[in-house]
UniProtKB/TrEMBL annotation:
A single BP term in Gene Ontology: 'de novo' UMP biosynthetic process
Catalysed reactions, as listed in the record: (S)-dihydroorotate + H2O = N-carbamoyl-L-aspartate + H(+)
Organism whose genome encodes this protein: Eragrostis curvula
NCBIfam families listed in its UniProt record: pyrC_dimer
Protein name: Dihydroorotase, mitochondrial
Limits of the Amidohydrolase-related domain: 62-375
Length: 401
């Protein structure tokens, strides 16, 4: 990774002096008030003196992405394809992608919707159900286009109603086949028991499902998707490196649960697992910026039409694809860990999946830019995370420089 302290001077990242930085939750998202990052002025002046203005990093991948289909796919795909080399494509369509044959078709739809000249690669996944067969896993492996299988506990999140009702009762033969074929299991890690408090669902899932699963099938590769708690961090750290890893979203690094209620109910920061309290956010930031190889970028960018977010029973999901790279960079900058950014965005994911790292580069420049208020699609519009606000880091392709 190269770091430029001004646009003309380039240092390698490890030579760069760590700056004093603050990591705190800025007051967020009052109704109709634009989100703005604020630093304490004294620290800001100090930080400005040493902070780099430009970074060149290996092209990142997104290891957790919802692209949907039809008009929404066409509208959102360019935002991911612009800067990411590859993405793990989530299978929770309506109806879900439960077979390799359907994954192959869906992949074709995505490739067709790509902007001309894009080399973005969709890495497909299967949606695990109570009836998925070990045979399907062999087909998936043989296809060369399916890279993982996704576990949605039935009822846990958007379009999860066909998900698994009893993992140990119904899915062990499939999971054993996945371990044999080295197909990773991606996990939405929340229990669905209505008696369990929403904020505890990840921890209870770890205790009652994930820990026993790792004990039973230590060879199965598992990615705990979109982790939100220090319990998840502790769990991931307790497992063998290379067997259990986690993706982390921009929202769980930047926001705590206050953001949901700041100045009124805020549907555009509602996602699952729900935002947690500040101590959990801090634990995730520390884990991710520590340089550990167990964590990698997964935006969980999850577009829903504005109407389905701003209504009496709004959908869970935050559309972050256009802003994610700016936000991750911000998080690492605030933690004084810009030298660890590239491993998180571009190395740890492919290393875990056993895929080559990307060879092309992107440039992240400090150049304030305004997030559009909405993005139109064929039958509606999508409100992005941090709608209408100004972000500091602007990503661009190296050859655009
Ligand atoms: N994260 C979300 O809140 N929503 C996702 C589903 C998921 O990843 O759980 C979606 O598909 O909308
Ligand atoms: Zn999920
Ligand atoms: Zn998701």
């Amino acid at each position: 990774m190269q770091v430029a302290v001004n646009p003309t001077t380039t240092l390698s990242a490890h030579e760069h002096p760590k700056h004093n930085s603050v990591s705190f939750l800025r007051p967020s998202l009052p109704c109709r008030v634009r989100f703005r990052f604020s630093h304490r002025p004294a620290l800001r002046a100090n930080a400005m003196a040493t902070q780099p203005q430009q970074l060149t990093i290996t092209r990142p991948d997104d290891w957790h992405l919802h692209l949907r289909d039809g008009g929404v796919l066409e509208a959102v795909l360019p935002h991911s394809a612009r800067h990411f080399g590859r993405a793990i494509i989530m299978p929770n369509l309506k109806p879900p992608v439960t077979t390799t044959a359907r994954a192959v078709e869906y992949r074709e739809e995505i490739l067709k919707a790509l902007p001309a000249g894009s080399s973005f690669q969709p890495l497909m996944t299967l949606y695990l159900t109570d009836n998925t067969s070990p045979e399907e896993i062999k087909l998936a492996r043989k296809s060369g286009v399916v890279f993982a299988v996704k576990l949605y506990p039935a009822g846990a999140t958007t379009n999860s109603q066909y998900g698994v009702t009893d993992i140990f009762g119904k899915c062990l033969p499939v999971l054993e086949e996945m371990a044999r074929q080295e197909v990773p299991l991606l996990v939405h890690g929340e229990v669905t028991d209505l008696h369990v408090d929403t904020f505890d669902r990840e921890k209870v899932f770890i205790d009652t499902i994930l820990a026993p699963l790792v004990q039973k099938l230590p060879q199965l590769k598992i990615v705990m998707e979109h982790i939100t708690t220090m319990d998840a961090v502790n769990f991931v750290e307790s497992c063998e490196e290379g067997h259990v890893a986690a993706t982390v979203t921009p929202q769980h690094l930047l926001l705590n649960r206050n953001a949901l209620f700041q100045g009124g109910l805020q549907p555009h920061v509602y996602c699952l697992p729900i935002l947690k309290r500040e101590t959990h956010r801090q634990a995730i930031v520390s884990a991710v910026t520590s340089g550990s190889r167990r964590y990698f970028l997964g935006t969980d960018s999850a577009p829903h039409d504005k109407q389905n977010k701003e209504c009496s029973c709004g959908c869970a999901g935050i559309y972050s694809a256009p802003v994610a790279l700016s936000l991750y960079t911000k998080v690492f900058e605030e933690a004084g860990a810009l030298d660890k950014l590239e491993a998180f965005t571009s190395f740890n994911g492919p290393d875990f999946y056993g895929l080559p790292r990307n060879t092309s580069k992107i440039v992240l420049r400090k150049s304030p830019w305004k997030v559009p208020v909405t993005y139109k699609h064929s039958s509606g519009e999508i409100v992005p995370m941090f709608t209408g606000s100004t972000l500091e880091w602007l990503p661009s392709d190296q050859d655009e420089e």
